[in-house]
Amino acid sequence: MNTILWLILIVANTVTYSQDFTVGVKQSPPFVIKENNEYYGISISLIEKIFPSSDITYVEYKTVSELVSAVNTGNVNIGVGAISITANRDKLIDYTHSYKSSAVGAVYHHKDNNDVMQILIKSAPNLFTAVSYLALWMLCGGLIYWILEHKKKITFSSALFGIFRGLYWASATTTTVGYGDVSAQTKLGRIFSVFWMWASIFAMGTITATIVASVNTNSDNIEFNISESVSGVVTGSASQDLAAVNGISTKSYYNLYNMFESLNNDSISAIMHDIPILKYYIKQNNIQNLKVVDLRLLEDRYAFIAQNGSDYIQQMNQKILEIIETTEWKKIISQY
Hints:
Layout: H1 2-18, E1 21-25, E2 33-35, E3 38-40, H2 42-50, E4 56-60, H3 64-73, E5 78-80, H4 87-90, E6 93-95, E7 100-109, H5 116-149, H6 159-174, H7 187-223, E8 231-234, H8 238-245, E9 250-253, H9 256-264, E10 270-274, H10 275-284, E11 290-302, E12 305-307, H11 311-324, H12 327-335
Parallel strand pairs: 1-4, 1-5, 8-9, 8-10
Antiparallel strand pairs: 2-3, 5-12, 6-12, 7-10, 7-11
Helix pairs in contact: 5-6, 5-7
C-alpha cells in the first residue's frame, strides 16, 4: 500500500513539471528578448530551467500592465519579464521569490562640465570634512611623536615648539617627503614611525578617494537633476509609480525605442527605467554620449507572477532558490 502511495506521489510530481502551459511575456531586454520569433534572455533561461520538460507556449503583451491583467484573469499561467515587485501589483497577482535585484536609474545626454567653481562650491561640505580629518590626523600624529621623543631631543623641550616640530614630522612623513631632519631617537618613537608611515598610506588614500567621489558626484548633480527634468517612463512600469511618488515630471511611452527617440530629439531630458535594461539597450544599439546614473530611490526586485492562489508559485519557489545559487546561473547573468 505504501509503495502505491509513493508511486502516485512521484507520478503527480512528474506531471506537475512536465505539463504544458502558457507563459505571458513582455519584451524587456535583457530579461526577455525576441529574435526570429524565438524568445531568450535572463527570465526565459530561468523559466525553461524550472520547467525543462514542459511544452511552453509564449504569448506576448505590449505592456507590463496588460501582462499583469492577463495573469490575473487566467489567460496565461505565468507572467515573465522585467516584472518588479510592487504593492499595487501584489493586490492583483502572486509573486514568486525574487531572482534578481537592481535599481531604478536615469539616462541622459552627457556633456563635459567645466564649471569648476560651481562644482567646488557644491563639494565644499565634503571637502571641509576631509580636510578636517586630515588636520586631526596630523595633529594626533605630531602630538604622539612629541610625547615619545621630547625627553631625548633638546629641540622638543619646549611643549609648544616641540608639538610644532612633531606636526612638521607628521606632515613630512604622511606626504612621503621625508627630509630626515627630524627623525625618531627612541625605540617607541621608531616603532610609532613605522606604524605611522603605513597607516598614512591608507589614511591619505581614503581622504583622496572621498574628495574625488564628492567632486564627481556633484559634477553629475550639476549636469543633471532629475527633479528639474521631464523624464520618459514606460506606461504602467514601477518607474512611473516611483516618479509619481517622488514628484518627478514624466511623459509616458509604450517602449524604449520611442523614449530614446524623444531623448535624442530633446523632447525629454532623461529616461527613467531599470538600470540593467537601460545599459543593455545602450550597448546593443551602440548609442554614444549617454550616461546612466543610479537615482537611489528604490531597489527593484524581479520575480515571476501567477494568478492569486496558483499552485505554480509554490512549485517554482524552491526551484528558483536552487538555480540562482549555482555558478551556471551566474554565467547566464554575466552573458547579458
